[in-house]
Amino acid sequence: MIAFEEVRIRYPRAAVRAVDGVSFAVPRGAVTAVVGPNGSGKSTLVRALLRRQPLASGRIAVDGTALEHIDRRELARRLAIVPQREEAAFALPVREFVALGRFPHGGHWGARPPGDEAVIVRAIERAGVTHLAARSTAELSGGEWQRTRLARALAQGGEGIVLDEPTTFLDVAHEMAMFELFADLAADGMAVMIVSHQLNLVARFADRIVLLNEGRVAAHGVPSEVMTGAVLERVYGWPLVVLRDPAVGAPALLPLRRSRGRSS
Amino acid sequence: MTPRRSALWIVLPVGLVALLVLAIAVGTVPLTPGEVLAGLRGEGTAEMNAIVRALRVPRALLAMLVGAGLGMAGAALQGTLRNPLAEPYLLGVSGGAAVGAVIAVAFGLVAGALLPLAAFAGALCAVAAVLLVARAAGGGADPRVLLMAGVIIGAFANAAIMVALANAPPNTVRGAVWWMMGSVADADWPRVLWLAAYLGAGGLLLLWRAREIDVLALGEEPAAALGLHVDRAASRMFLIASLLAAATVAAAGLIGFVGLVVPHLVRRAGVRSHRPLIAGSALAGGMLVVGADIAARTLRPPSELPLGAITALIGVPFFLVQLARRA
Amino acid sequence: MPRSPFQRVVWVVAALAAVACEAPARDERSAALPVDDFGAAVDTTAAPAARIVSLIPATTEILFAIGAGERVVGRSEWDQWPAEARAVTAVGPGLRPNVEAVLARRPDLVVLYGSEDNRAAAGRLEAAGVRVVALKIDRIAHVDRALRLLGALSGQSASGDSIARALATTLDSVRSATDSLPRPRVFWHIWRQPLITIGAGSYMHELLEIAGAENVYADLAAVSPPVNLEDVVRRDPDIVLSGPNNAADVRNDPRWQALRAVREGRIVVVDTILVGRPSVMLGAAAAHLAERLHQPPPQ
Lengths: 264, 327, 299
Fold this sequence. Notes:
heterotrimer, B: about 325 residues, mainly alpha, 14 helices, C: four-stranded parallel sheet, 12 helices
């Protein structure tokens, strides 16, 4: 659904490009994970999708049409993007907050089509925040806030969803639940793109992984291809061991300790 | 709708009407209710008719319109700037209008509509300057850049006013200072009708696009994710809100705190979404200024207290209460 | 020479007594001198001032009227009368004057407006060795005093005194001429925004009374207080007094129709240039006012 084609992005007054010739696709029905060290250009790609960052060259296409030729609202109806951070200046009840996800669908006067209510309720359920629907966003914990934002994105009702670090504040149960939700969404036919630090979870749930390093694609493929010790050590610059655990069925990463300390 | 919110939509209009009635009934010349009614219908003595129809009614209506305009502008700006401390004069409106007014007073251009027009022109120039400065700094819709640009232009305007007043004859200084303190004493029907038409148009625009403010209030990136052209939508809101504020300043001088306090009060009653927030702020703002003007007229006859001082006196305890709640 | 402590004390007391006895004599001498509005004694016995800087429009006009015009070497930038005064070098504002510019004219006498704003400047001028006289010119008595004082200071005592007497005589004659006439109640419209009128503290109020009228705002002590139009309506003046610019506004503005005086067409236009400043023309101003106020009302 989303195609990055030789995308190059440079921040103003920066010496090097933040993104330097990145090409990959985010197909429907699959979870595509974008991983890489800090500063490798992952979040910059998300900003470019939000049209907050112009491209120096290259193209980002959604269903074949270049981004700049798609009406913004139209795009928001088809593709939901959840940025890394969001701080609410004003508190809202969670239900109303999620309802804002229907904004791209409504007319100016905001008359809501009758189906909206059902979509909102379903989105709240899927994100697992039904018990928070009446609470104010000001009272949510970090993890609850993240899931509420996911609910809003789901309420947009699109065919694709892009998430930048969606599980930062989640405990292991909620983290797993969210990744399982991503897998479900992909199984339903959505294009799911996740930018994440969580290499192990990505290895288990992603259908394809794009590994970025210094603005370029260092590796691209299925987890077993990308998650090799040599590649990851080179990119991350840290000694690692990659295990294959048959019980889990996916490669698992184990970073080693460099300094002496209490023995592991 | 919670009971509190629906009560609001009865209390506000009723309260506004009650205050308007009070404003028309009360004044330095004591009139019985019968005389006031006769004056309204034009059937009293010439004096009564003139007092009610030419003095009190336009004044009450102007106060209401000014309050409504400031309330709406404040609500829109607080949402767009994501800052609950934003107020309508932030983007250069007060400084620019004051410069325009002071220049007009200094040149004796005070007849009829000249002074309001000069103030309005000054405000427009200042708002344009703020938006240009912000854009040049690379942050056309970034609240922090805009706030800084507003401070810069405001400081420049203050300097210009000081220069203009430094060597001006005493009556000019007095007239300029009086204007800056805010007053609806100069209300007449043409002014009321102009302001009503203007605020009606601007208010409708704001109400029409109020959903966009809800989205803008989420933040730049979330708003972009929901399909808004953030820079354009934000600039639009700044412009409309600042123009509303500029119109009120042109009509009545600088009246502070209304645009800041009123949206908070309406939010405290449980209103979240910006469409009802803007509408509620219009009603509540109208009430506040009509009430303040009644006080300004009747507390110390025969002079009038400056309207801006009364609204500031209301604003101070309001913020003390806010601070106390936080602590 | 005192020897014991007791003798020393007696000696000191005696010395103090001698000084104390002298002091009243000095006070008597200074009591003979007039005192200006900053409380300083004005030495009118000294030689007449040859180079005068006048920082008040009224005193500039007075100096020219009493024939001391050639001695005026500097004026404030607001001074416009008489026409000859405009040829004199302007040295800046009359309130918080530019001391350096004043001193550049090498004056031996500076006349300042007696407001607190000017105390600092007065101090600095005196420190530079220049004589300073601070005068208020808010009331008719002040004008009379200024005429006499400036006459004495500039060597034109005869002229100053005679003009002062003539002024007093004119005012008296206007007063007696209007004594027997009915006294209309007048609202004097000075300024539009805000609405300002004349209170009892102003010479214009005195002129009004001399001209045989009553100021509806005689109860306010200020010089030019702002008022509320409805309050003017409540006081129900017979006549609205105004300059030509404001008069047109008043006639055309529907809000002023609330005043009986406006509905009856009793708007009296006066020459603000004549009556709007305290000057040697006060007598003519009073006569002008009296003539305009006692016209028969329009039919």
